[in-house]
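I am sending you the entry underneath: sequence plus fold tokens. Let me know what the token row says about the fold:
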Amino acid sequence: MDGIRGAFARAGLVRPQTGRWLAGVCAGVAAKLGIEPWIVRLLLVVSIVLPGTQVLLYAALWFCMPPQGWVAPMRAS
């Protein structure tokens, strides 16, 4: 799991500690895209009325995106 979180962190997808409402997923995606978080939140809310797996995608991103400032644990060699 640390490898996945490390990949997200290297890509710049992290959940910020400030400006978040629930888990910070929308704020993190907005920061990566360089847009305002309310746009991503609005798109998420609008897309929930459509059939699909938006809630599962949000939950997966919540689980995979590390919080801001996250550092991968050192592996014992």
